[in-house]
Specification:
Blueprint lengths: L1 E4 L4 E3 L11 H9 L8 E5 L10 E6 L6 E7 L8 H20 L14 E2 L8 E5 L2 E9 L4 E2 L10 H21 L18 H12 L16 H7 L9 H8 L5 H9 L1 H4 L1 H8 L5 E3 L8 E4 L5 E4 L6 E3 L1 H13 L16 H14 L5 H5 L1 H22 L14 H18 L1 H13 L1
Antiparallel strand pairs: 1-2, 1-7, 3-4, 4-5, 5-8, 6-8, 7-8, 9-11, 10-13, 11-12
Helix pairs in contact: 3-10, 3-11, 4-13, 10-13, 11-15, 13-14
């Protein structure tokens, strides 16, 4: 394999030059040896890997008695077409957190440990490995010790424990904003072009509903900006056979979802339009505030950090808040096949709001006014993404072996149902926000 690090210098290694390692963990061990780690080095499959960067390995390095744990991860090249931009944003975010911590912004009862990147032996922040499959980006991070995450609140058996975690997550989101406040959002580009662009998601849905199969078919829907177009164009196209496409498009369960998506467009783009008008200010946001990206101390139970910095970008913090609120308040989970079981847990919503508002810096009145709507918008946006992806053939939210072929359909139904439930409980949710502001 041909290796090139961040600074552009080249190296040749014995990593099975034709890109065919004997086993994934052995290949990972050899790649890990190119980072600045103590010997000996061992590599193992990491079962807690996420849905996007699936090639993640636990690395154990160092002599007996002094061994450290690390995570080696491949940035998914099918999702992250601009890995340097991803890593630059990630590194800037880490540095901002470290600077803020050195200035003692935490209170006495708070904990926070930023992600720590391990450099290559040549001093780069990541490795670019070129082989017959193209250029791939690998990074190494120190595994944060005495920490755990939760896939969802249902993992916590007792209700008080669930509320404590929800409140800590809200506080953690506020802390992330404080720790990254020195970053200039106007100087950042989105590392994942088209991400959190609600208008673009509607264009993709419209193109798929029109049955576009070629770029010529989709010409009226494609973005004009070259980088954005190259990064997103495949998601404007139908990738399944015509008969299967017609079956999915004609599914009676999806007809009301399609109608709801189209009729709610003006509401769905509210945050984006408020940013464009200047009524909302831009901030550096995390971009993927699902619960399992929050780390909690196994010693104190307190929030310890926020990981997975691949989507750090300029936007309104309301997208981070809304995404976290819509996911935590959904008591049934993201893949519940029975829509009747999807309900909004207002106790969780209130605990989350309390944790966030108590710790957040002063917020604009317009931002406060949109906190409840932000959760609805993020549920609707995600529903549109799942819907379009199912109709075109699961080109973005790819299915793993063993997952049901209609998984993205189920996910879409869940989010559209959640959107309706959140709207129905909007008045109660606003009271939760008001109560949190009084404390």
């Amino acid at each position: 394999m041909h290796i090139k690090n961040l600074h552009g210098s080249d190296a040749r290694t014995g990593l099975h030059g034709k890109g065919h390692p004997s086993a994934p963990s052995e290949r990972a061990r050899q790649i890990a040896s190119l980072f600045d780690l103590p010997e000996p080095i061992e590599a193992y499959e990491f079962p807690q890997r996420g849905n996007i960067n699936r090639e993640t390995f636990l690395i154990i390095a160092g002599p007996r008695g002094e061994r450290g744990e690390y995570l080696l991860q491949l940035l998914n090249p099918e999702v992250f077409s601009r890995p340097r931009a991803v890593m630059d944003a990630m590194n800037s975010c880490i540095q901002a957190q470290q600077k803020a911590l050195s200035e003692c912004v935490l209170r006495e009862d708070e904990e926070w440990e930023p992600v720590r990147l391990i450099t290559t032996k040549e001093g780069g922040n990541y490795l670019e490995i070129s082989d017959q499959g193209g250029c791939k980006c690998w990074r190494m991070m120190r595994k944060i010790s005495h920490a755990r995450s939760y896939k969802n609140l249902r993992e916590i058996p007792d209700p008080p424990g669930r509320l404590k975690v929800a409140e800590q997550a809200g506080r953690g989101l506020a802390l992330f904003g404080i720790l990254t406040a020195s970053m200039d959002p106007s100087a950042m580009a989105c590392p994942l072009p088209g991400y959190r662009d609600t208008h673009r998601y509607y264009d993709q849905l419209a193109s798929v509903l029109a049955g576009s199969r070629t770029l010529q078919d989709a010409a009226a829907f494609l973005p004009a900006e070259p980088v954005l177009r190259r990064s997103t164009q495949e998601h404007f196209l139908v990738h399944i056979q015509p008969e299967e496409y017609r079956r999915r498009l004609g599914d009676p369960q999806l007809q009301p979802l399609i109608a709801r998506a189209l009729e709610q467009k003006s509401f769905a783009v509210t945050l984006q339009e408020e940013l464009r008008s200047g009524d909302l200010k831009k901030a550096v946001v995390h971009g993927d505030t699902k619960l399992d990206n929050f780390l909690f101390s196994t010693l104190t139970g307190k929030l310890k950090g926020l990981v997975d910095l691949d989507t750090v970008m300029p936007h309104t913090w309301l997208t981070d808040w809304g995404d976290l609120a819509r996911s935590l308040a959904n008591a049934a989970g993201e893949i519940e096949p029975d829509p009747h079981r999807i309900e909004v847990d207002l106790e969780v919503f209130e605990a989350l709001a309390r944790g966030f508002i108590r710790r957040a810096p002063p917020l604009q009145r317009q931002e406060m006014n949109l906190m409840v709507e932000a959760a609805q918008i993020m549920a609707l946006e995600l529903g549109i993404r799942f819907l379009a992806d199912y109709l075109r053939g699961d080109s973005y939210f790819k299915l793993s072996p063993g997952e049901p072929p209609d998984l993205n359909k189920i996910r879409a139904i869940v989010q559209f149902t959640l959107f309706e439930r959140l709207r129905a409980r909007a008045d109660s949710a606003k009271r939760c926000i008001a109560e949190a502001c009084k404390e």
